[in-house]
Amino acid sequence: MAxxxxxxxxxxxxxxxxxxxxxIWGVLIFLSIVTGIEVALGINKPDILLNKFIGxxxxxxxxxxxxxxxxxxxxxxxxxxxxxxxxxxxxIVVPLLILIPFLLFILLIEGSYIFDVMLxxxxxxxx
Amino acid sequence: MQASSAxxxxxxxxxxxxxxxxxxxxxxxxxxxxxxxxDALTFSGFLVSYGFSRFKNIDSWPIADEVFTHxxxxxxxxxxxxxxxxxxxxxxxxxxxxxxxxDAGHHHNKNRVAFYxxxxxIGGAIFVGSQAxxxxxxxxxxxxxxxxxxxxxxxxxxxxxxxxxxIDEFAVSLTQERYTHDDNVGLWYVEExxxxxxxxxxxxxxxxxxxxxxxxxxxxxxxxxKIILDxxxxxxxxxxxxxxVKGANLYRNEYGNPLFADFFFFITGFHGFHVFSGVVIxxxxxxxxxxxxxxxxxxxxxxxxxxxxxxxxxLVWVFVFTFFYLI
Lengths: 127, 327
Prior knowledge:
The complex is a heterodimer.
Chain A: E1 9-10, E2 15-16, H1 20-44, E3 52-53, E4 56-57, H2 58-78, H3 86-122
Antiparallel strand pairs in A: 1-2, 3-4
Chain B: H1 2-8, H2 27-56, H3 64-67, H4 82-106, H5 110-140, E1 145-148, E2 153-158, E3 163-164, H6 167-170, H7 200-209, E4 213-220, E5 226-228, H8 231-237, E6 241-245, H9 258-291, H10 293-297, H11 301-326
Antiparallel strand pairs in B: 1-2, 1-6, 2-3, 2-4, 4-5
């Protein structure tokens, strides 16, 4: 059956696996390395990464990027969306790629606006 | 699946006659994917509202490293994040065994499917247990704090040792006449929640006797550290203390903003419920594998569908881990 065929390469063909099982273990190793880096950064918090870059600390940008990389490999290889028809793939991924950034944009902008308003005299710590 | 195979038996060709599968995926798998899309939006709604509340209180949000510092059998040792990292790894590993089960299903290897499903169930159970343990530590609390009239939490800090000091280490025990009200000795229609083991008077007396103790605010400075007051300012700040806070509930917690605990309970609770129901569904599928249901049906598509759900739970945890514990 067609759905038993797997695409056996990751990193755009940089690493090719011989079987699907081998690919799964390869992806696990990759995800573990990324998680390890995240935890090491989270515990040590190097000073150089605490500088701000476009509204967020550099270290937080790194965490977010690594999370998205992990999410990509979990969906593409564990949930084997890599092997699905592109129509199915797009009908799942595209709505999420549109809606979630939209929600993020609206609410985070609004949150920091409320912070500014309260900072300007509408909040008191001592009353 | 049975429905779709019944349709394909009619042998009608063309787009309008039915029977063709443009997405090359069964009905159940397609619906599982659409459920996952809607559930992903639910979780992103939760996490984004967490972000909203955090941006709203960006200068006073609790620091996760200071809250989740426990590791089993290492009592009193400060081990931030190690346990959550371990939980993450357990969940990713149970995802791997799930993929291996799906793969074995494609090869119609019943024993291997059952073996990997069992490993997945064990991994999920370990994860849910770990989360319960995290909740226990979170609810019980470690240092304790006082709440002042404005609702802000003041934590205590030892200037000599340069670290936080738990309230039970410096509080002076005073004889008390006040007991928790019980409805069999007083007004039967009046209820009172349990009184704290250490009263506010005891904490304040201890604070006045130990001049090396000062107060740590919720507010954070430019470097992301909590602001520590000097002794004189601390004496002023603590004047308006109204109650002792130990641990966490939905109304107040010793870590800082009440919203922090609310979101912790809600998001990890909702995720934990997903893991729990995933384990239950996995057990049902596991029993069906053992009974040979899918062998008789001719395919292991059910394992694949529950696998999709299981990976999704793992995927959500990756995001919860980042936004709750790392950032």
